Amino acid sequence: MLAQGEDLVPIPGTKREGLMPELPEAERARRTLEAVLGRRIARVDDRDSYVCRPHPPGEIADALVGHELASAHRRGKFLWLETADGPTLGLHLGMSGHIVLDGSGDARWDRFAIEFDDGTRFALRDKRRLGRAVLNPDLGRVGPDAAIVGRGDFRRLIGAGRAPVKARLLDQRAISGVGNLLADQALWQARIAPGRSVSELAIEDLDRLRRELRSAIRSAIRKGGVHTGRFIPARGRGGSCPRCGHALSRGVIGARTTYWCPICQH
């Protein structure tokens, strides 16, 4: 989540150790933040100038203290909280962050926190310090949310050009929220090889991919994260396809390590 004028570098990623939050994890974080809506902000810890860049320490606090959080929103992996009558707070989980309520667990890694006048609190906890907190985020270059993108927009945004289909799914300017694991899961479900050029995909292929992507997202949100997908445990050296049992292929597509079934996915 970046401020106006700063380069947008989308970061995939879940709060489980070794995994990175993607859209389902961000949606679960958004639902967690709904618990603090309607509370008045008493204090803000914005001392981490890297996580809160480009704001100097105290700037976010000065803008938010005294306001109430009115609504929690998400597009792709990007979160934002609107106040009832003031600024908007943008949040991004980065590569390892998650939202914690009321100081549970180890607070050493809390990079940004808000305390309310009733004594409750939430924090962005992130060992790797790659999350973000920013005022009035600019989402102008973030594509439609992958969970709700319409059929026509999906065909237009994913089907244009000659990029490998997995690389296009990872492009947050095309559609937002898909990271490495979710892309592999959805392509496996749709029986589409990740290295296929989008120019080779028929309308039926794009529509099937959209259906399976939305299905994978709904399942991951319901079950607790992208890691719960049926294909994900098989990703790794020596892994085999959960559907046909054939050894998986491995390569780098869209600068990301990619696994697929050479028999099921065409």
Description:
The protein is an alpha+beta fold. The protein folds into 2 domains: about 25-135, Alpha-Beta Barrel (N-terminal domain of MutM-like DNA repair proteins); about 150-260, Helicase, Ruva Protein, domain 3 (Orthogonal Bundle), CATH 1.10.8. It contains 6 helices and 10 strands; from the N terminus they run H-E-H-E-E-E-E-E-E-E-H-H-H-H-E-E. It has a 4-stranded antiparallel β-sheet. Strands 2-3-4-8 form a 4-stranded antiparallel β-sheet. Strands 9-10 form a two-stranded antiparallel ribbon. Strand 6 and strand 7 form a beta hairpin. Residues about 1-20 have low confidence and may be disordered.
CATH architecture of the largest domain: Alpha-Beta Barrel
Question: Biggest sheet, strands in spatial order?
Answer: 1-6-7-5
Percentage beta strand: 15-25%
CATH superfamily of the largest domain: MutM-like, N-terminal
Number of DSSP helical runs: 6
Distance between the termini: 35 Å
Number of strands: 10
User: Would you list the SSEs in sequence order as H and E?
Assistant: HEHEEEEEEEHHHHEE
What value does the average pLDDT take? 91
- Summarize the main sheet: 4 strands, antiparallel
Uncertain stretches of 5 or more adjacent residues: 1-18
Named CATH topology of the largest domain: N-terminal domain of MutM-like DNA repair proteins
Summing up helix and strand content along with how strands pair, one would put the structural category as: alpha+beta
Helical proportion, percent range:
10-25%
Quaternary structure annotation: single chain
Q: Tell the overall outline.
A: elongated
Number of domains: 2
What is the C-level CATH assignment of the largest domain? Alpha Beta
